[in-house]
């Protein structure tokens, strides 16, 4: 398989991951949630996970991949399940560490799930990744391979270049916004604290009941309207996310974003 085909496979599997997470989270929340770290309809961790599992399976050969001579059996399924579960779990843990270290944010938190480790990974999700790996290797990957082999190499290369450019721009925009996230959260927090302090002092002279209305106005005008679209989108996409440095203002941002 040519490198461009691997890249398009990465994009396709990332897209399938986006479809799954968006559907699952939207059904649970009873309203549409556009999941994803990036603007485009992809979740890269699924693409990376799929490629890792595929490369690992290729290394094991017939032990994991069924062939006409060696049909699907319990050994195939078990090897793919355990290997996929391990690789995907390690990948998820690494992704969580990177997000927390560089952006000081947790997009997911499994602390309330049984058998979790540091809230970054949990047994439930690991088992799901194992099942997903079996589905991927036994069904999805063979179908996509047969399809891509029928597409001219030039078309694959051109598509890979175009999509690669779009993805690069998306990554730059998203990462740039997230790198400024804590700076914006801190600034908003300082403005809100100063404004609330001032307005409360004035309100005390008029009527104590104005407190709640003032806070609502400050939150709406100073927090939501001043935040970049990218950050608002992230807050809506991951309602369970946690800011490690500015928890209170991030929670307010998430609540207000849900109303918009």
Automatic annotation (TrEMBL):
Keyword Transport: no
Signal peptide: none
Pfam family of the protein (one): ABC_trans_CmpB
Keyword list, A-Z: Membrane, Transmembrane, Transmembrane helix
Residues spanning the membrane: 6-24, 45-65, 77-100, 121-140, 155-179
Record protein name field: ABC transporter permease
